[in-house]
Design a protein that fits this description.
The chain is an alpha/beta fold. It has a single domain, classed as Vaccinia Virus protein VP39 (Rossmann fold, 3-Layer(aba) Sandwich), CATH 3.40.50. 31% of the residues lie in helices and 27% in strands. A seven-stranded mixed β-sheet has the order 3-2-1-4-5-9-8, with helices on both faces. Strands 6-7 form a two-stranded antiparallel sheet. The two termini are 26 Å apart.
């Protein structure tokens, strides 16, 4: 247990340093617009009163865009306290957003959600145990009938991000990982241009949970 706790502490320190060393608009994953996420939220026919969680959302502008569209039950989970502090300062008081400082792999919320949004978290799960923990958490918090939006580096994307190795996925890879209890609604490829001008191919998948009985153990060769 101590080993796992130490590892999570190191992981939190890594991402705190990544945010503390630069303005949130200068990190490689920053998007000045979140068009793809919003398009997929719409493709999943997400109701305005849906409970939405943006895992690893950091200081992303997605919550601002959702609030503008009158979504009023939005949570942002991140392992980095620096990221959440930056987000809180930008949103100000009264924003319809719950900020959750926690490691996703050890998160055990007391509620379920209608939509799970993950842009660029799952591809950091390079170990089978971490993928399995991610999928267990996903299945424990996402209601049957709920939607998932996940974006990872594509097969021709970077192998390292922020000094950390990543796994790369095609759309079919992500469908295999999620398993047969998720029905794909939309899939697409996007080229993300970082603030320094680098181009990063992403795979996006939007799916709806149909059958909670299937369990996947995270097995995959990467």
């Amino acid at each position: 247990m101590t080993g796992a706790s130490d590892f999570r502490s190191r992981r939190a320190s890594h991402w705190d340093a990544a945010y503390a060393s630069r303005d949130p608009t200068e990190v490689s994953w920053f998007q000045p617009t979140v068009t793809t996420s919003l398009d997929l939220v719409e493709a999943l026919k997400t109701a305005k009163d849906a409970a939405i969680v943006d895992v690893g959302g950091g200081a992303s502008l997605l919550v601002d865009a959702l609030a503008e569209r009158r979504y009023h039950d939005v949570s942002v989970l991140d392992i980095s306290s620096s990221a959440l502090e930056s987000l809180a300062a930008r949103l100000g008081t009264g924003a319809p957003v719950e900020l959750i400082h926690h490691d996703l792999l050890g998160w055990r919320p007391h509620r379920q959600f209608d939509l799970w949004h993950d842009r660029a978290v799952f591809h950091f799960m390079v170990e089978q145990a971490d993928r399995a923990a991610y999928l267990r958490t996903l299945r424990s918090v996402l209601r049957t009938g709920g939607g998932i939006i996940v974006a990872t580096f594509a097969p021709d994307g970077p192998e390292i991000c922020s000094g950390v190795p990543v796994a790369r996925y095609s759309s079919s890879d992500l469908q295999e990982v999620l398993g047969p209890d998720f029905a794909v609604v939309e899939e697409l490829r996007e080229i993300h241009v970082t603030p320094t001008g680098a181009k990063q191919p992403f795979t996006w998948l939007a799916a709806r949970r149909t059958d909670p009985r299937h369990v996947f153990d995270g097995s995959r060769n990467v």
